[in-house]
Amino acid sequence: MTAQDLADTLRGRLIVSCQAPPGDPMRETATLVRLALSAVAGGGSAIRANEPEVVAAIVKAVDLPVIGLWKDGDTGVYITPTVRHALAVVEAGAAVVAADATDRPRPDGSTFAELVTAVHAAGALVMADVSTLAEGIAAAQQGADFVSTTLSGYVPGTPKQTGPDLDLVTSLSAAIPVPVVAEGRINTPEEAAEALARGAHSVVVGTAITAPTALTSRFVAGLARP
């Protein structure tokens, strides 16, 4: 699938992130596959999934594009941090590899541009997860096929918000020629629609759809307020 073909498929559509953090009861391959199948049944247009084993299982189970990544660690650059991680995700069958494209150093000393080159050579596309406008511009210049706002609010120096960084969506959409994907703290259909209105090509929603542990804790916290 070419970048243009996938862009056409995803224009104005929902990508569902089917992931679970370490230690969560949902973090089991068969369970995450069922989440992906539920997303398909609900009308999702693509799946975002973590770890080669899970990516491979979801690719086998659903007839939708899969955006794969490999989280290794929980600090610094840990979303598909090296070329090795990226190629493992391609081998698992992902149509797109999502990778950290912030300006922080990668653990093996490689560059984001090198990762893009390797993934393209292996026949897949790249989604750059960024936290700022400058990073998004740089990622597009380095060959990313899509740029996502995934890391805004999670990298030091970026705005801490309870909702999505819609200002970043707006600025990126005006500044780069590649599709911008809104991701991060999108909690309602109204926020998802606003992201599209601000220029997003498509929208990724995870926690608000696929994370019962986190959703339960929100309700518990709300009931505990005086």
Automatic annotation (TrEMBL):
EC id: 5.1.3.9
Catalytic reactions of this protein: an N-acyl-D-glucosamine 6-phosphate = an N-acyl-D-mannosamine 6-phosphate
Keywords carried by this UniProt record: Carbohydrate metabolism, Isomerase
Gene Ontology molecular function: any one: N-acylglucosamine-6-phosphate 2-epimerase activity
Enzyme class: isomerase
Pfam families reported in the protein's UniProt record: NanE
InterPro entries in the record: Aldolase_TIM, NanE, RibuloseP-bd_barrel
Keyword Isomerase: yes
CDD domains xref list: NanE (cd04729)
Pathway connected to this protein: Amino-sugar metabolism; N-acetylneuraminate degradation; D-fructose 6-phosphate from N-acetylneuraminate: step 3/5
Family membership noted in the UniProt record: Belongs to the NanE family.
Function: Converts N-acetylmannosamine-6-phosphate (ManNAc-6-P) to N-acetylglucosamine-6-phosphate (GlcNAc-6-P).
Protein name, entry field: Putative N-acetylmannosamine-6-phosphate 2-epimerase
Organism: Streptomyces mutomycini
